[in-house]
Amino acid sequence: MIGEGGRGERRLALWLCAPATIVMIAVTGWPILYSFLLSLRRADLRFPEDQEWIGLANYATVLGNAYWWTAFGVTLLITVVSVVIELVLGMLVAVAMYRTVVGRGLVRTVVLIPYGIVTVAAAYGWKYAWTPGTGWLANLLPEGTAPLTQQGPSIAIIILAEVWKTTPFMALLLMTGLALVPEELLRAASMDGANRWQRFTKIVLPLMKPAILVALLFRTLDAFRIFDNIYVLTNGAQNTSSVSIIAYHNLIGGLNLGIGSTMSVLILISVAIIAFVFIRVFGAAAPGSEPR
Amino acid sequence: MKLRWGFIDVLVVLYALIPVLWIVSLSFKDPSTITDGSLLPTKWTLNNYTGIFRNDDFIRGLINSIGIGLIATFVAMVFGTMAAYAIARLTFPGKRLLIGFSLLIAMFPQISLVTPLFQIERTLGLFNTWPGLILPYITFALPLTIYTLSAFFKEIPTELERAATMDGATPFQAFWKVIVPLAVPGMVTTAILAFIFCWNDFLFAISLTSSSAARTAPATISFFTGSSQFEDPTGSIAAAAVVITIPIVIFVLFFQRRIVAGLTSGAVKG
């Protein structure tokens, strides 16, 4: 630490952190509180005179609504399936990037392309690829199938788009974890007769556990708020809405602030539960909490 | 052994490139062949590109995207650098709280802010304006800048500032004259990640705007309908998607090494 001037240092730190903290609190803190208050009111912009405090009635409305639970189920399904695929695929890509000698630079560069692409732009690419007539992928399917007009295939395509875009990010995080595994340990194990699979499951995976958990935590929370891909691919048709899509439609289409805010609060609670489970149950270290 | 990794490498490259080539190919297809479903154009045309650059809404969207992205990135970098330096170098009460709070925002479901912000911005007159988008972008870019920059700052030896303060520099001078110049590579990386985040955003862009006054390019594309109701917008959308994507991809490829370092040190998605 520079200097021993305790109080001066504290004052400097306060001034340095103030702008960032104020902006973050102003843009998130007050809106969250406001959203909580709105969720306790009847507040429909189409009927501005008819506003009153109604307690938890909005929560009863949302939680008693089949569309909400369908959206919740779809969101969970997309989250779990895409994160699992990303983990497996990401691990494969990470090992490939780490071990490969030929064309190492090329692979490490190319793999960043999906990361750099605007999600909406990539989503249009997938949409047209699966549109009968227009798309090269749709034309590989039997005549007369339109995958984006059915629930199951639509969700599969949403997952595909999500996985394609975010696997590189997962792979990069996993590759940093891979770099922490000491080569000598692997060499010693192979001398003791451990085969490749045993070395991977018994040495590499346990040592990588912290990196894997952080990557999973970030990707799970990120997948849970999925919006762009669904908006472009189906816009929630055929029961493919995620919770974000349904909350958006309630606000922009329905102009119902009370219900929209209730959904916002419920999504926030779900995300908090996911983070809590990861950090407390699986023991994921929250990044930044690392001992210095 | 080498061959097997080579094979996986080829698969990885195809995985990343084919979807991109498809949308590029679609953007060069002539309207008469756009529904032929072939992977490569059979009849090439530049009309889709000349068309979108004659579309005022798209041009306006590009200007909005660039302007809003640059301003938000700049502000987030200034505020983020200050906070990151404090986190990396100073001891002060509330440090863990600040780290925890920015982590909370990094993981925050953005949709939860959309409903209240929509209403608040309408009341304050910020709805459908540049500041109306810049503010949430700064907020969500801040955790990224704070994490990534504090990781970069921690790599710079403390002795340098100690020497500077011994020579009579104030802590601020030590920071501004010694640390900042050394941290430039890290700051460039961080700025790129923050800009990509702003450029990529779609949810705020369609929720907090109502016209081309502030609508950014990705949101503008989603409103493309074709010049008449009989014209299919597929070609224009593909061309616009390529236009908003290619600069970022080139950027990412050019700064590849640094971006990997930045992404993994912050462990925050941009």
UniProtKB/TrEMBL annotation, chain B:
Its main location: membrane. It is found in: Cell membrane. One of its GO terms (cellular component) is plasma membrane. It holds the Pfam family BPD_transp_1. Residues 62-255 form the ABC transmembrane type-1 domain. The keyword Transmembrane applies. Gene3D superfamilies: MetI-like. This is Sugar ABC transporter permease. The chain crosses the membrane at residues 7-28, 62-85, 97-118, 130-153, 174-197, 237-255. It comes from the Bacteria. GO terms for biological process: transmembrane transport. The keyword Repeat does not apply. Belongs to the binding-protein-dependent transport system permease family. It is a multi-pass membrane protein. Keywords: Cell membrane, Membrane, Transmembrane, Transmembrane helix, Transport.
